Amino acid sequence: MGFTPLNMIWLVPVFTLTTQEMVGLSVSPQITADYGKPVTLQCNVTSKFPNELEVKYVEWSQNKMLLCSVNSEGIITTHNRLTPFRCEYKNQQLSLIFQNVQPMDSGISNPFMCKLKSNQGASHAYSSLELEEYCGIVEVFLTSRGPGCTFKHVYPDGDVHWFHGSHRISDGSLHNITKRISEGGWLTIHSYLNRPISGVPYNCSLKSTRSDRYIASALVHNPKALVKTPRGHASSSFHSNGVTSVKGILYISVLIIVTVK
Known about the structure:
Elements: H1 19-22, E1 23-26, E2 30-33, E3 39-47, E4 55-62, E5 65-71, E6 76-78, E7 85-90, E8 93-98, E9 112-118, E10 121-131, E11 134-142, E12 147-155, E13 158-164, E14 167-169, E15 175-181, E16 187-193, E17 202-208, E18 214-220, E19 238-240, E20 243-245, H2 247-260
Parallel strand pairs: 2-10
Antiparallel strand pairs: 1-3, 3-8, 4-5, 4-9, 5-6, 7-8, 9-10, 11-12, 11-20, 12-16, 13-14, 13-17, 15-16, 17-18, 19-20
């Protein structure tokens, strides 16, 4: 009886790590920012084998617009942008630092992306900034048609509500409003009433569409109803093109409202 030699094939299991499992990025998914205060987005490179990792390239971008990048030699390149920022790179961490966050930088639908290229593969991660509600300036004025107010440097959008004493004026035919977007994505909201001024001041308030709370408010007085000072002079005001601006009165009104809150 003859024997036929058999070729035996041994299947040895081999376990390998994909490049995505070997290297990654760590970022904060969402950061809340206060206007006027610096905020930092950090992108940290992580690796299963950190001693063997060679970072070739890291960048921060937004909406496919490159903000800054660092090459394998650690040299940072910064690109021009409307909002002032700077980038720092240390210990395989690329930081994107804003001095003043603008509305154009804010929003979950407008994220920043950190991207990595290395000898262990590539990776990317997203982080977003959310700017807190803000209104920078409130101006009040009088016209021949009635009281008016302007809210400047506003974020996010808001609705203007008018009050006369404790009564809210809900008649839309008496209320006129316009909005425009200025540099950086800030809103300017202008509103006035087709209603004569009286001895009772009007309250002009801005309500945020995000939180449904009032973020700014001011009173519009009738200059004729103002009490004179001990020297016999009424509060300061000036007239220009048929519009009476009561800026001195505005300061006192806003101060009182903030104190009550």
